[in-house]
Amino acid sequence: MCEILEIPRSSHYQSLQIVVSNREQENQELTKEIHLIYLESKGRYGAPKIHESLLTKGFSLSLKRVQCLMSKARRWFWIC
Q1: Are 27 and 69 in contact (CB under 8 A)?
Q2: Contact, 45 vs 37, CB < 8 A?
Q3: What is the residue-wise DSSP string for 20-68?
Q4: Are residues 33 and 59 in contact, defined by beta-carbon separation less than 8 angstroms?
Q5: The dihedral formed by the CA atoms of 16, 73, 38 and 59, expressed in degrees to the nearest 10
Q6: 42, 50, 79: which is closest to 67 by C-alpha?
Q7: How far is CA 74 from CA 10, 22, 62, in A?
């Protein structure tokens, strides 16, 4: 298959070992927590109040990061 696609074999094997970074794992956790807070507020809370709730729960992050994560996970927030 690699010969037909004209790519090195190492590229194929390297793609099998993709590891999720610590930052991405943290973002996934935060996104789940953001979604829970959003559902608890019945969709009324925006990024500022969700940010405040996360700080109260002991998370350390900026408002901008909450906004970015909410933007990336927009599909979740419309399903509710």
Answers
A1: yes
A2: yes
A3: --HHHHHHHHHHHHHHHHHHHTTT---HHHHHHHHHHTT----HHHHHH
A4: yes
A5: 60
A6: 50
A7: 36, 22, 18
Q: Which of 24, 25, 2, 4 is nearest to 15 (CA)?
A: 2
Measured CA to CA in angstroms, residue 61 lies from 31, 58, 66 at distances of 12, 10, 8
Q: What is the pLDDT along the chain (80 residues), one digit of tens a residue?
A: 778 888 888 887 887 878 889 999 999 999 999 999 999 999 899 999 999 999 999 999 999 999 999 999 887 665 54
Residue with tokens 């794992």: 25
Contact 70, 47 (CB under 8 A): yes
